[in-house]
Amino acid sequence: MRWRIGRVTVTRVVEMEATGGSRFLLPQATPEAVREIGWLAPHFADETGRLRLSIHALVVETPERRILVDTCLGNDKQGRRIPHWNGRQGSFLRDLAEAGYPAESVDTVLCTHLHVDHVGWNTMLVDGRWRPTFPRARYLFGRAEFEHWSRQTEREEQRAVFEDSVRPVLEAGLVELVEPDHPLCEEVRLVPSFGHTPGHVSVRIASEGEEAFITGDIAHHPCQLARPHWNSTADMDPPAAEATRRRLFGELAGRPVLVIGTHFAAPTAGRVVRDGDAFRLLVCW
């Protein structure tokens, strides 16, 4: 799946998609509550009210940069809370290359935040050691985000994530710590969107009068447009996460901005419109 925004293209490369099994993440999204949001079916929920979710990366290609936004789960990783995320042997790198983006061609890796499903392919296991998957790239992490997780000692899973997917690229000298409104290039800049994590960022793209917005995890699923008060169990500051959703979707509503969801199942992107005191996603193929 690929979109064009002026001279920029954004390509979705999927690592995993699933229907159902998301109640651990969005406990308020019961099948009954989801069926009340009629516009979610058939793309984002099935007829029984089970949510469809995706873990994917987005390649943002500008005239001068090739930026990989978030790097999914990765292969061979251990210590993950969800059992089938451990020891994966998926085809993500091959799929990325088949989409036209071999690993050595990526010059920038941007992690919207440092959760497990956004950093996994930062590294790959080579001869028993974690090596940077994208050796020609600079890895951009939000400064506040990095500083928070580098000090974190309580969550065992997140310690494992930091050690196998963050620290190796830091030790390889490939990391740049950036501010939450950092401009990556003329067409792409970061947008502060705190709440899910302390330094979470989203991504704004603008080229030749066209705009797009990559959500990151301000919303894991489009149901959170219709119900902005439905917080994820992974939101570290739920009131701030809800306030961020309402603010950013409010700014996007009614504007010709392509909103690309970091975990939204296909068709993944659309335009935000107001729907009462909440919002709705009008899908774009």
What does this structure look like?
The protein starts with a strand and ends with a strand. 46% of the residues are buried. The protein is built from 7 helices and 15 strands. The chain has one domain (2-283): Metallo-beta-lactamase, Chain A (4-Layer Sandwich). The protein has 285 residues and is an alpha/beta fold. Strand 3 (52-61) and strand 4 form a beta hairpin. It has helices at residues 31-35, 92-98, 143-151, 156-165, 167-171, 223-226, 238-252, and strands spanning 2-5, 8-19, 52-61, 66-69, 108-110, 123-126, 129-132, 138-142, 175-178, 188-192, 201-207, 210-214, 257-260, 269-275, 278-283. The strands form 3 sheets. It has a 7-stranded mixed beta sheet. It has a 6-stranded mixed beta sheet with strand order 10-11-12-13-14-15. It has a two-stranded antiparallel ribbon with strand order 6-7.
Summarize the structure.
With 285 residues, the protein is an alpha/beta fold.
Flag low-confidence runs. none
SSE pattern, N- to C-terminal: EEHEEHEEEEHHHEEEEHHEEE
Count of separate DSSP helical elements: 7
Distance between the termini: 8 Å
Main beta sheet strand tally, sense and closure: 7 strands, mixed
Helical proportion, percent range: 10-25%
CATH fold type: Metallo-beta-lactamase, Chain A
Rg of Cα set = 18 Å
**CATH architecture label name:** 4-Layer Sandwich
Name the CATH superfamily classification. Answer: Ribonuclease Z/Hydroxyacylglutathione hydrolase-like
Strand order of the largest sheet: 1-2-3-4-5-8-9
Q: Please write the CATH class name.
A: Alpha Beta
